[in-house]
Design a protein that fits this description.
alpha/beta; DNA/pantothenate-metab_flavo_C (chains A, B); phosphopantothenate--cysteine ligase activity (chains A, B); Rossmann fold; homodimer; eight-stranded mixed sheet
């Protein structure tokens, strides 16, 4: 399925786009890399923060979904998508956010579904979703695809073919309970929900795949500091606002070691500088000891990515023909990920896992 | 037109919602009120910051739009909608954002259009838009309204009536060039674009109405500080991130005094505490010397608002019948605003303006 081009969009969409970050300043290299979280960090974080109050309802949905697909031996992928927010102290109207529309996650989920995976889609609320992303209300206003004919709303003939394809897939996925959508907004909600889903998915062992495409905040404001040390952590000095944030514990290592130890875990590394991309990706592999980092550059992420493992790196690129035909790079990424997942399942089987 | 209820949404939408701020902590009262901007602030801001590079193309679109409607003596309203962002220093992937889906602005724009105003819709890119908001890809997935019949995509009969109404209005508005959509993302883009549009609108004098529903950031990072004083303004101390922000100049007074001095200006005041709402609204009127503040509470903003002028306050509330029938509060707000705009036009006419 070809992607809709958000730059052109539908007839009534704006020509000007304001939200794309400049490559030259998009990633701050003055910030240090933080160490991986250890069991004590985990205890601290999950003990000192209150779980979201809706978590038990999600827990049941996830358990039902996993059970349903486990019975039919279907593999399950958790796709995370979109950016997490960090509410500023005592002020949830204002928050720190990460640039991400959720395109990578939503598109990847579609290709996993087409390859017979069941998908748990842990996404930023109001970010792009599988299938409906093709008719997002802002880049492609769906009303522009419709006409009035004989007093009825009808789909313009020239869009029928593509829309029918999308609709069929959308209906099939929902009728067969293949997609479970779970929203998050804050990094706090994300971490609690990720841990919950990971622990529930651990029951299917190597048949679970983690595909972590969400843009997770680096910094947060510990809830312990909100009531007690208000003045220290947020000061207004001469009209200025000073916000003092702590690094988010790097829980990927906990996912690998403890929450879902025999599942395959894929993370993403977004950079702007080609020179350091591989090094950064390998650094993440070393720190967290998982299977695969998919490296990508902000400026070329829709046309090429690099698969980095401990002993290999493999570029996956769209050909110019594919670019001209609006082929999604995810249509190349997902089969490659699935191939590696199948190899890992075979390995674990040999080990009796 | 009744509003779609985002809590229920379409059959495949999630039951859980994660992005609604808690009323008890949504607005930080420890922050001081900043004084209105004076001409020197204005000079400083617009001299020390580079205008967005697309501004000249917008300038032409706005001028054409104003000219087109001025010839037919149509009144024009500028509706601002959605939240502005503040990119963190040297890092546009991370930014401070304000909670706002753009519902108030998008819905209000529809009712202005139905009252024969032309609308310049200055909105956060990817926030809700007039008409298409009814079928947003996330709360009401439009694919859920469609069925496959005789090998074609068709609109489900039970949704035909409402969708036809929306489609007719959408087509009419675009065929008659009644809606000009201009996006922003950062507070910087917002301020430059607001100034530009205000100055262009000043040529139609009192026939212009400013309806400022956007959630504008209180703080920003001056661009002057980005290259020179990196260490001072963003420090990582022991892994912590310290962000040091300046208050955004309060340009509403410049809009009133200098950019569009004889137009009607309506601003919004969002609070969480009913006790201080009127006082805060009147404080804004005093500071900026404009005509009308519409006060609203985070927890009840969809069912009641209060019109505050220097010598009056008037609550506008949906009846329980109207609430049950999903009537938009904006269907009551806009006629009231228009009434006051007409009175102001009469007044200005008597003064020969």
């Amino acid at each position: 399925m070809s992607s809709s081009n958000p730059i052109h969009g539908s007839p009534t969409s704006s020509r000007v786009h304001t939200s794309i970050p400049e490559t030259s300043s998009a990633i701050d290299r003055s910030l240090p890399e933080f160490p991986a979280a250890n069991p004590i960090d985990e205890d601290n974080y999950f003990k000192t923060h209150k779980p979201p109050n809706y978590l038990s309802s999600i827990s049941k949905d996830v358990a039902d979904f996993i059970n349903f697909h486990h019975l039919s031996k279907r593999k399950i992928v958790l796709v995370t998508s979109g950016g997490t927010t960090v509410p500023l102290e005592n002020n949830t109207v204002r928050f720190i956010d990460n640039f991400s529309a959720g395109t990578r996650g939503a598109t990847s989920a579609e290709y996993f579904l087409e390859s017979n995976y069941a998908v748990i889609f842990l996404h930023r609320e109001f970010s792009l979703l599988p299938y409906s992303r093709h008719y997002s209300h802002t880049t492609n206003c769906f009303l522009d695809y419709m006409i009035e004919k004989d007093g009825k709303v009808q789909v313009n003939d020239s869009y029928q073919k593509e829309m029918l394809l999308v609709l069929k897939k959308h209906k099939f996925i929902h009728e067969n309970n293949l997609l479970l959508k779970i929203p998050f907004t804050t990094v706090h909600q994300y971490l609690f929900t990720l841990k919950l889903i990971a622990q529930e998915l651990s029951v299917i062992g190597s048949n679970a795949l983690f595909y972590l495409a969400a843009a997770v905040s680096d910094f947060f404001l510990p809830s312990s500091r909100i009531p007690e040390h208000k003045i220290q952590s947020q000061e207004t000095v001469g009209g200025k606002l000073v916000v003092d944030l702590e690094p988010v514990p790097k829980f990927l290592s906990r996912l690998v070691d403890s929450w879902a130890p025999i599942s395959m875990i894929v993370s993403f590394k977004l950079e702007t500088d080609n020179e350091i991309l591989i090094k950064k990706a390998r650094g993440a592999l070393k720190r967290y000891n998982h299977q695969l980092v998919i490296g990508n550059l902000l400026q070329s992420r829709k046309i090429e990515v690099v698969f980095v493992t401990n002993d290999s790196e493999k570029w996956i690129k769209l050909s110019s023909d594919q670019i001209n035909n609006n082929i999604d790079i995810e249509s190349l990424i997902i089969p490659e990920v699935i191939k590696q997942h199948s190899l890992l399942i075979e390995e674990k089987k040999k080990l009796g896992l």
